[in-house]
Amino acid sequence: MRALVAPAAGAAGFVLLWWLATVLRLADPVLLPSPWETLLATREGFAQGPLLHDLVRTVLRTVQAFVIATAIGVPLGIALGARERIYRAVEFVVDFFRSTPASALFPLFLILFGVGEGTKIAVAAFGAALVILFNAAYGVINARRTRVLAARVMGAGETRILWDVLLWEALPQILVGMRAGISLALVIVVVAEMFIGSTDGLGQRVIVAQSLFESGLMYGVIFLAGAVGYLLNLSFLILEKRFVHWAGR
After folding, report:
1. Residue 213's domain is classified under what CATH number?
2. Which of 9, 51, 114, 194 could join 203 in a cystine, given CB atoms 3.0 to 4.6 angstroms apart?
3. For the purposes of burial, counting CB atoms within 10 Å of the CB of 213, is it exposed (0-12), middle (13-18) or buried (19 or more)?
4. CA-based angle 235:241:246, to the nearest 5?
5. What pLDDT digit, counting tens, does each position of 146-183 carry?
6. How far apart are CA 107 and CA 149, in angstroms?
7. CA-CA distance, 75 to 96, in Å (whole number)?
């Protein structure tokens, strides 16, 4: 409970500042509704509108993209990290595309996959896979050499060292990459829903609400997307603390 006090206080302070801004009319009420009006509009979106469907679609796309990214990024990152010279040879390509804004790649993925569901998932999976691959490779590369040498002295082969030493040494860094990857996948999915011919999803709902001047719903959807990202990040933090308790030891 004590751990929840600081986040709750921060959230309450944010809502209070928002409410004061609306009371003092620092912005047009049409553009900046009160927290209560935003809450009512969001509740109405769930009760009478397609907001629940939009939320489910965004989460499903994010999870699909993340699963694909993990299936590609983790084994490829481990394999490259175990052969550091090969990784150094492709490091520029990985870093280049990892640093390229995903929105700049939309035209390329539209050409490859067309306008449809696959494009949103593919571009999000691509962006997340690079982050996961990068962290997995560096987790293996930075594994403690003393443990690797100890395993070799005891007669372990390269395959045994990879699975019994390097993988466990790299697991904390891999989970860090997965946590960053799922957050990035959510961001890319929401942006893709805004601009790649989508008929549902939180990103599309933000654009529709903005075009109809439904500011309360627009802010509600934005905060809803933020809440999804926060919960996904928190879930991975809990997993890290529970299952990789040896990290840093």
Report:
1. 1.10.3720.10
2. 194
3. exposed
4. 150
5. 566 566 666 666 666 666 667 777 788 889 899 999 99
6. 48
7. 20
- The pair of structure tokens assigned to 201 is 């999803």
Q: Is 9 a member of any domain?
A: no
Q: Does residue 48 sit within a domain?
A: yes
C-alpha 43/C-alpha 46 separation (Å) is 5
Domain count, the chain: 1
Asked if residues 123 and 192 have their Cβ atoms less than 8 Å apart, the reply is: yes
Q: Taking the C-alpha atoms of 21, 22, 26 and 29 in order, what is their torsion angle to the nearest 10 degrees?
A: 150
Domain that holds residue 121: 31-243
Q: How confident is the prediction for the chain on average, in pLDDT?
A: 84
Residue 238 lies inside a defined structural domain of this protein: yes
Under DSSP, is residue 153 helix (H, G, I), strand (E, B) or coil? helix
Q: What is the DSSP letter of 30?
A: T
Selection from 25, 47, 54 nearest residue 209 by Cα? 54
Q: Report which residue type is found at 29.
A: P
- Reported as a single tens digit per residue, the pLDDT across 59-80 is 999 999 999 999 999 999 888 8
Half-sphere exposure of 60 (CA within 13 A, CB side): 10
